From TrEMBL:
Superkingdom assignment: Eukaryota
Protein name: Maturase K
GO BP terms in the entry: mRNA processing; tRNA processing
UniProt GO MF annotations: RNA binding
Cellular component terms per the entry's GO annotation: chloroplast
Pfam families (UniProt xref): Intron_maturas2 (PF01348)
InterPro entries documented for this protein: Domain_X, Maturase_MatK
Keyword terms of this UniProt record: mRNA processing, Plastid, RNA-binding, tRNA processing
Domain Domain X: 1-59
Main location: plastid
Compartmental location: Plastid
Amino acid sequence: LSHYHSGSSKKKSLYRVKYILRLSCARTLARKHKSTVRAFLKRLGSELLEEFFTEEEQVFSL
């Protein structure tokens, strides 16, 4: 998605969408594990979400 819009002048809104998706994913996983978002990310590290979204971007860019 971000690769498709790489020439767009509205990159700021794309970063906002990416932030919202990451936060939503973190909240969902934290709730599943009966934890807060902060505690969940502290325990597993924020790299977990970074790695997931990086892999997704590579798949979409093919």
